[in-house]
Design brief:
Length: 226
């Protein structure tokens, strides 16, 4: 499989089939992902791979607490996440793409809420991978970079094996629920979650490919004119 088939042709999957994913396949994907770059080879990451009844309990607890108005309790926070300018524009644009694909009207508050709750249910995927890092490294500027790199590598490895994935924060916004049912020890900090499973080709939002900046917008080249 060519690089561009794995990277450029892929997208976040928000609809999965209920088919189980073999543990052996997930172990293979993790082994590939953990070849990701790591500052000074610290490898700060840990993976809590959850399926079945424990994952159902996380889904239920996340949903119940959010509907009850319990404040979010994400553990890894670096500051405000209120986007402005072009960053906010891109956020709105991809939401329009997704709602358009799903046929969710702007005024349909019930369907919009259901869409948000899908995230708290880990998009009903059969597997959830919780990415944590060792608390002793809290405050390190390299640790978030390393965890981001291994998460991207995990998604690409999953795609190369026919699975779909979506990196998300909704599934960990109620961290006490996640800690309880995933058995995450206190010496680890919850950073991200990755919904993982076989893509449902009939799910409309799976056809959405987010628009990206051009290379000309994103890159500055210096010295090439000489």
């Amino acid at each position: 499989m060519q690089y561009d088939e794995v990277i450029l042709g892929r997208r976040s999957i928000r609809g999965f089939t209920p088919d189980p994913v073999p543990r052996e396949l997930i172990e293979e994907i993790l082994a590939l992902a953990m070849r990701a770059p790591s500052s000074m080879n610290t490898q700060p990451w840990n993976f809590h791979v959850i399926t079945g009844e424990p994952l159902d309990r996380i889904r239920a607890g996340n949903t119940e607490r959010n509907l009850a108005g319990v404040p979010h309790s994400r553990e890894f926070r670096t500051g405000a996440e209120k986007f402005t300018g072009p960053h906010r524009d891109r956020q709105v644009q991809v939401a329009k793409q997704l709602f358009g694909a799903m046929g969710i009207a702007r005024e349909d508050t019930e369907m919009r809420q259901d869409w948000v709750l899908r995230g708290f249910r880990q998009f009903d995927a059969p597997v959830c991978v919780i990415v944590t890092y060792d608390r002793i490294l809290d405050g390190s500027d390299d640790t978030p970079f390393d965890c981001g790199a291994v998460s991207t590598a995990l998604v690409n490895a999953a795609w190369s094996r026919g699975l779909g994935a979506v990196i998300n924060s909704q599934g960990i916004m109620q961290s006490p629920v996640v800690r309880e049912h995933a058995g995450i020890p206190d010496d680890q900090v919850i950073m991200k979650s990755i919904a993982l499973g076989w893509p449902d080709d009939t799910f409309p939002a799976n056809s959405v490919i987010s628009e990206r900046k051009s290379v000309e917008e994103a890159a500055t080249f210096v010295g090439f004119e000489q």
